[in-house]
Design brief:
Shape: globular
Number of strands: 10
Radius of gyration: 17 Å
Structural class: alpha+beta
Oligomer: single chain
InterPro entries: DUF1826 (IPR014955)
Largest sheet: 7 strands, mixed
Low-confidence stretches: 1-6, 8-14
CATH topology: Jelly Rolls
Protein name: DUF1826 domain-containing protein
CATH architecture: Sandwich
């Protein structure tokens, strides 16, 4: 059975050339630095969001859509100033920040509860940028650059456990974001990048866990 072991946290004082982590939202802008492929705004889940997050954890449906960046900046579909829903307000602020940072025309948005294993293999995304915030449950797992064997990332008919064994140089150095953290991941379609972020969703299905997650992705299709 899969176990969700405790992974080491990343001290805010530690950085390397491939990632940035800090307690100020401005740290997210460092994703545009050439060597950086992961930027994390480390923050706790705002306490006021608790009741709404619990409600979403029990739902089977999810919110999905593709929106013009202009709509998001104008407060649609989530209004950053919505004083009737702290959760909608928080999501609105994060989406607005993402739209401003990415400077793309359209953004694909997912929000809801996840109860299955989305991708157990460490991989890179074929997008420009992706934002992931886990409001409930274990957060995104990612690898600092010195832990990755990139030659092992190419698709192959291997079981996830064997693929990960080949990809990860040192399992003790796998990092996991905390609930509330705002994680920005650079993908393969980011202009000029040669080192997209290597990450995966934490395995939760066999453990019967649920995650409440916001995912915003640059939408590059015409």
């Amino acid at each position: 059975m899969t176990s969700l072991v405790a992974l080491p946290a990343v001290p805010s004082s530690r950085q390397d050339s491939s990632f940035r982590l800090g307690g100020d939202p401005d740290v997210l802008a460092s994703i545009h630095e050439a060597s950086v492929n992961v930027a994390i705004w480390a923050r706790p889940v705002p306490p006021a969001l608790g009741p709404e997050i619990a409600t979403w954890a029990g739902k089977k449906d999810a919110f999905e859509g593709i929106f013009d960046a202009a709509e998001i900046k104008a407060g649609r579909p989530f209004d950053p100033e919505d004083d009737t829903s702290p959760l909608r307000s928080d999501i609105g602020r994060l989406l607005r920040r993402f739209a401003e940072l990415t400077r793309v025309r359209r953004v694909q948005v997912f929000f809801g509860a996840i109860r299955h294993d989305q991708c157990r293999k460490f991989h890179v995304d074929y997008v420009r940028l992706r934002l992931v915030t886990t409001y409930l449950g274990p957060g995104t797992e990612w690898l600092p650059e010195d832990v990755v064997r990139r030659e092992e990332l190419a698709p192959a008919p291997l079981a996830p456990a064997e693929a990960n064994r080949r990809i990860v140089r040192d399992p003790d150095k796998i990092r996991r974001a905390s609930a509330g953290d705002v994680v920005l991941l650079k993908g393969e379609r980011y202009p000029g990048t040669e080192r997209a972020a290597v990450h995966r969703s934490p395995p939760i299905q066999e453990l019967g866990l649920a995650r409440v997650v916001l995912i915003a992705t640059t939408y590059d299709k015409r």
